[in-house]
Amino acid sequence: MYNLIKGSLATYCCLCLLLILIDPAESGQLSTRFNVSFAQLDSCETYSVPNTGYGYRRFYMLRELSNNNRKAGERLHLKFYVLTAMDAHILLSVTNHPRPNDRVYEIVIGAGGNTFSAIRNAMGMRRVATNQEPNLVSLYDPTPIEIVQNQNGELFVYIPGFKKEPLLQFIDEAPLVINYLSFSSFGSNTARWFYDCGFDGYVKEETKTEKLLSHLNIQAENASMPANLSSISFHFQTRSLAYEQTSSLLQTRMHMMMHWRDSRLVWKPEDFGSLESFEHPDLRIWKPHMNVLNGALQSMGQVLQSYELMVYANGSITLYAQNLQLASWCVDSARNWPSERVTCDIELGLNGQEGQENVALIYDDQRKPIAPNEHVNTPSGWSFTQMSVVLVENDSQRRYNPKGMMQKMTGDVAIEFTLQRNRSFYMTVFYLPLIACQMFLILSFVLRSTRRSSLILIALLIAAWGLMYMTRYASPHYVPPMMTAYKVIMMTTTYCYILHICIIWLDLYPPRSKAPGWLVRVINSNVLRCILGLRFSDSTDYCDIQENPWHHMAKILNNLSSILVIITFAIVDITSGF
């Protein structure tokens, strides 16, 4: 027992001594299956593929990669490292939006549950080269993958450290000019890719553009606001206006440019390859946060989401927002459809930093090349007549800042658009049927039998169609005069049809009882007959009236109703604005 304990202590001491003798710097470089350590991979750029299934979501341009180490006679020479259980996918394509049937080079290492590898010339199909070597990829040991395409169109795939010969080889008779690269996996497998590795010796020297980008990002001081910045000038070009009266919403699309200066971003062009201006997606400088104060829908909050940023050597900065879409509330209080004329505005304001005054917006209408209100498209039923930019200088007005605190609207501006409905169109569409109905009804008084009833029914149908069609365009918040005119036409049409039935009854089926004396005297009145356009009654007519007064009564009702209808139509035409 004593010897056993003594032997165990000796073994433990030897292990401790061995761990002490190992250099910690070398412990991170212990050999793996392909002689690639995780310490080396610290110098690489990485991209992780989530378990969201097969699909290429991020593309890299080959000319922007640092490890495209082309040699003589080669089109491309790339090297990557991957950690995955299976199905490591590499896509080489001509475009960054390849379609399912487009010709590409798709390389799969560890396909079929890590049992084989292949090259395809379409995404997910058309295999052109296969190798049955299993277990080439692992979640714990990085697998190196080297891809070479020579000028003859031959494509080689190597696994360095596995064997010197190519793992896969494909000769393309019509070789593709590869511009983009992407990574993926398959099914629920995750993958972590490593590229642009410094230990491969492919690191490029920093270009003048990269040096200037680094210089500007440092001088911008974490995108802090420039000192003493009090105003930003802007100008714009309105591209389209659409006013929705029913929802009181103005939709505007415009190109806008904003200009300011940051003295920290000045540089000497001769120090950076004679660059007078600079733009880059990774530029991290201060940018204005603009809000639409009366914004609606997607325009509530920060509206500058997509834009181009240009910095000049003298510190001037230009922000260009193309096709900026803004929505604002605009209530039409007039009640004169379809002759409305409204003024809608877009109130713009900048959010300054806490403890500082608001940055003012100044409209600069002298800037070129953007000129205001050129070729304004108005897809709604409104026409654009006038535009102006005014300051919001009412001291009694307040607005909330992003911190939820009230502040003055000093420096805010309002872009005002005057819009007018296309009145002539609506007048043509709705007033012509109205006049046609009036003519049919007036004409019906000189006709008899079925022709009269047909005209009345036609007028009723036209009026009903016009009234229903009007509800698609007229404001539902009030009854426009034109809608009242259609309402009167329909009531008059109903009255004319009832009158037609009464006249037929008096002519064909008169009452058998004798007419009252006063009714006979009224029928024989020459004054009334003159007003109604009837000839004076002679002895023959007098006798006929005494024997058959109901027939003459029908004539009087017909003529009297025609006069009343004509007067009603005149009043309707005047009051409805025709």
From TrEMBL:
Residues 206-422 form the Neurotransmitter-gated ion-channel ligand-binding domain. Residues 51-197 form the Farnesoic acid O-methyl transferase domain. GO terms for cellular component: membrane. It holds the Pfam family Methyltransf_FA. The chain crosses the membrane at residues 425-447, 454-473, 485-506, 556-575. The keyword tRNA processing does not apply. GO terms for molecular function: extracellular ligand-gated monoatomic ion channel activity. Keywords: Membrane, Signal, Transmembrane, Transmembrane helix. Residues 1-27 form the signal peptide. It comes from the Eukaryota. The keyword Hydrolase does not apply. InterPro entries: Methyltransf_FA (IPR022041), Neur_chan_lig-bd (IPR006202), Neur_chan_lig-bd_sf (IPR036734). This is NtR, isoform B. It comes from Drosophila melanogaster (Fruit fly).
